[in-house]
């Protein structure tokens, strides 16, 4: 069941098992203009640039009341095993994340109901349901992931980005990059220069012993009701093993009227 949980919560698996193959500084080329932020940059030009960049990132933050999408997921592990499935995701902001996983021939295999303090997983193949607290997710991935981080991952907002501990800022012709240090990750973020949409997000584990890394690439931006939304994403994660995940978002809708059914049949067992 542990493997099933990780697979179903495919956005969380990005943070589960990573090993860094590159150092953060390898992403900085000598020909680029690099502005280093000082420990106390209150009156420096670099502080102004960083502040303006974070304000633009905030302006692109995807806010909503409800969200829904069909997501085609392609999943490949280090043994070259491939998995394809469709995930139907519905979110009531700050309240409910509902996920339905369809296996071959459109048969629903799993249904997940997540709230800020609980996780329910219905296995429709083995006819059982599992009830867990959000602490269960944290135990699996050994990180303080909560409902709100998962919500941001799904819609495409940056996570683990600490504006108070900026290591580097740089500008290229078509992009802006900055890196921050948080309690758990170094975060290197690359943005399109003209609209500050996220191009790439790289998380390197602050714990050098574990050295997990996760690479997010965002493509195919569309505008939905004034929101910049990446409809195609690729994720590569590694530690002792490597996982590659491709996500294709279809039928994306914000602020529609949604339901979140989770009716448990009487003949289902409880785990």
Describe the structure.
The protein has 4 helices and 15 strands. It is mainly beta and 271 residues long. It has a 15-stranded mixed β-sheet with strand order 1-8-9-10-11-12-13-14-2-3-4-5-6-7-15. The radius of gyration is 19 Å and the shape is globular. Mean pLDDT is 80; it is low at 1-8 and 10-41.
Key terms:
single chain, 271 residues, mainly beta, outer membrane lipoprotein receptor (LolB), chain A, 4 helices, 15 strands, globular, disordered N terminus
In a few lines, what is going on in this structure?
By secondary structure, the protein is mainly beta.
List the helices and strands and how they pair.
Blueprint: H1 2-8, E1 33-35, H2 45-59, E2 66-76, E3 82-92, E4 96-102, E5 108-115, E6 118-123, E7 128-133, H3 134-141, H4 147-155, E8 166-171, E9 175-181, E10 185-192, E11 198-205, E12 213-224, E13 227-238, E14 242-254, E15 269-270
Parallel strand pairs: 7-15
Antiparallel strand pairs: 1-8, 2-3, 2-14, 3-4, 4-5, 5-6, 6-7, 8-9, 9-10, 10-11, 11-12, 12-13, 13-14
